[in-house]
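Sample pair:
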Amino acid sequence: MHMADALLNPAVGGVMCAVSAGAIGYSVAKMKGDKQAEKKLPLMAVAGAFVFAAQMINFTIPGTGSSGHIGGGILLSGLLGGPAALLTLSVVLMIQCLFFADGGLLALGCNIFNMGVIPCLFIYPLLFKAIFGKKTGMGRLMAASALSVVVGLQLGAFGVVLETTASGITELPFGTFVLLMQPIHLAIGLVEGIVTGGILTFVWKSRPELLDSVQESAAGVPVKKTVAILAVAALLVAGGLSLAASGLPDGLEWAMEKTAGTAELEAEGPVMDAAADIQEQTALMADYAAPVDSEAASTSIAGVVGSVMTFVLAGIVGTVIVVVKKKRVKA
C-alpha cells in the first residue's frame, strides 16, 4: 500500500508529512518516558529488519488477480508498544522510499500515517490492548491480532482514498476507488492478521514477558533467544523467501488498474520533479534490484542489504533516544 507521488498534490503531501512528523515526535517523547526503552533496543533493530524482509513477500489473493504484503504495524506494536513500533516502521518506510524507490518521497508522510500511525498509535492501544490486555490467552491474542490488523488496514486503505480525493486525482473517483480498495484490503488484512497472530503467539508462548502488554509486571526481559530467532528469520526471508513473492499487482495497484485503467499515473509539476530527482539520486537499488546479472541474486542481495540497513538505523534511533533520556535524568 505504498503510495506514489502521482496520487497526491503537494499541499496534501506536505500536510501529511507534517502530521506524520508530529506523530513521530510524540513517539520519541513517549519512548523517553518508557521504563523498558533500553531493553527494547535489540528488538527494535531486529523486528524492524524482519518487517522490512517480510514486506518483500507479496502473497497472492486467490481469485482476484491481486497480491498483498504485511504492513507490520500491529506486529511491531505487540512486541515494542505503539510509539517504539511507529519509530521502527518509519525507519522501514524511509529506507524503502529513499534507497529502493518504493513509495514516493512526497507521499512518505501519507505512507507513514496510513501504515504506521493508524495501527501503532490508534488501533493498538484502543483495540488490541482492549481485547488482549491483562486477560491473556492464545485465543485472545489471535483475535486481537486478526481484528486489529483488519481494522487498521481498512482505515489505512480508506486513508489512501481520502488523500487521493483531497488531492483532486480525477482518474480515481471516490465511489469507484473506495469500493475496490476496501474489499481487496480486507482480504489482505485477513492473511496478515493470521500471520501476525501466529508470530505473536510464538513469542508469547516462549517469552510472554516480551509482549508489550505484559511487560509492566516483568522484572527483566530476556531477549537474546528471540532476537536471534528473528534475526535468522529476517535473513532467510530477505535472502530466500523473497524470491517466491507474487508478481501480481498489490492491492493499491490492483484497485488503481480497475479504476483508472493503469497503476502508474503521471506526476507533474516542479515539486514532483524535485522529489523524483532526489529519489533518483538516493535509490541505489531501485525496485529492489542490486547491480548483478542474476535476477534471483539481485533480489536476495537487495533484501539482505535493506534488512541490515533497517537493523542498523532502527538500532541507532533507539540508542540515541535512550542516551538522551539518560543524560536528562542525570541532569
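Strands lie at 59-61, 66-68.
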